[in-house]
């Protein structure tokens, strides 16, 4: 946390607009960034699953029957093969 705070100070003193944008993004996601360093956890598995859902939905060219769509998702991705 201390290193990140020092980095913020350096960015503010440098007054470079592109770094200010990055610093703002880091500030908005501060707890998630630090969580990675404390617990080594990310949302990569959720992002991967979301990508699989989008890909699956794309192959169907639109979903008409929502219950069947959810059934197929659970059969393909939730059940061990």
Compose a concise summary of this entry:
The radius of gyration is 20 Å and the shape is elongated. 80% of the residues lie in helices and 0% in strands. The protein is an all-alpha fold and 81 residues long.
**How many discrete structural domains?**
2
Biggest beta sheet summary: none
**What is the percent of helical residues?**
over 70%
Estimated share of beta-strand residues: under 5%
Terminal-residue CA separation: 43 Å
Structural class: mainly alpha
User: What general outline do the C-alpha atoms trace?
Assistant: elongated
Radius of gyration: 20 Å
Q: How many distinct beta strands?
A: 0
**How many DSSP H or I helices?**
5
Low-confidence segments: none
- SSE ordering: HHHHH
What is the average per-residue confidence, as pLDDT, rounded to a whole number?
79
Description of the molecule:
The protein is mostly helical and 81 residues long. The protein folds into two domains: 2-39; 44-78. It is built from five helices and no strands. It has helices at residues 2-14, 17-28, 30-39, 44-60, 66-78. It is elongated.
């Amino acid at each position: 946390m201390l290193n990140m705070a020092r980095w913020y100070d350096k960015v503010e003193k440098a007054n470079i607009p592109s770094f200010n944008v990055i610093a703002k993004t880091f500030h908005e996601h501060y707890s998630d960034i630090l969580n990675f360093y404390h617990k080594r956890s990310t949302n990569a598995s959720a992002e991967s699953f979301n990508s699989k859902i989008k890909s699956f939905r794309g192959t169907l060219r639109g979903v008409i029957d929502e219950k069947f769509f959810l059934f197929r998702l659970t059969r393909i991705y939730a059940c061990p093969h």
